[in-house]
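queue> holo job accepted (cobalt (II) ion)
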Amino acid sequence: MMRGIHHVGIVVRRLADAFGFYRDALGLPLLKEAVLLDQGVRAALLGAGDSELELLEPLDAGTGVGRFLARRGEGLHHLCFDTPDVEGALAALKEKQVELLDTAPRPGLAGQIAFLHPRACCGVLVELATPSPEASAHERAVASPVRLKRLVIGARDVQQTAETFQSLFGLPEVAMNSGPRVMLAVGRGALLVVPAAEVGGTEGMVALSLVAEDFQALNASFVRAGTRYLKGTGEVTVEPVSSHGVHLHISRYE
Ligand code: CO
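queue> job finished
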């Protein structure tokens, strides 16, 4: 039912500042930008391989995203799955008595969209989107030097959280041999559910893993931009102060 991660939404104070990191330093191509009055945001979609990142700047402090920014600061906000039939998916979720924020699809930046209530998905705000075929074709044709590999989710109960995502969205489990973590595949991406205790007690979305086609060029770009990051062997971790509140792990393309 879910074709992949369409995008991960990130709340930022100012789009113009966030472009300095996500578009200019990281190199993600800007695909689309618009004001969405019903969501109270100025939003931008940037290409990240098979998925996208959506940057959200609140239009004012009284909107949902404005309140999120005041309460939590900049950072990961929601996860959006690409589904071929958002209306059918909503009907199936209603049948299962899943708590929804939108009972019918509405137009959004990613196409026809709808949000589930975060209570339905272990504290993760989930959006479903059916993009127009023209938009999908156009966006897939834009090359990105960095692509989204997976989203890390912290959970008090890893099994229960994984089962919730499996039962709501039909995501298959990927076999792993590394203790109390569960990996769920979605398209060419994945969700990695880890114990909250492993990620500083955080429940919900905690980090993004990306892969870079040209790791050396990315390092050089970060140095030029003054990005703060930690260098490991074959992986860099961008400090949230540079990536607008998001823990970003970027590894070499393999
Ligand atoms: Co979104």
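queue> The longest strand covers residues 146-155.
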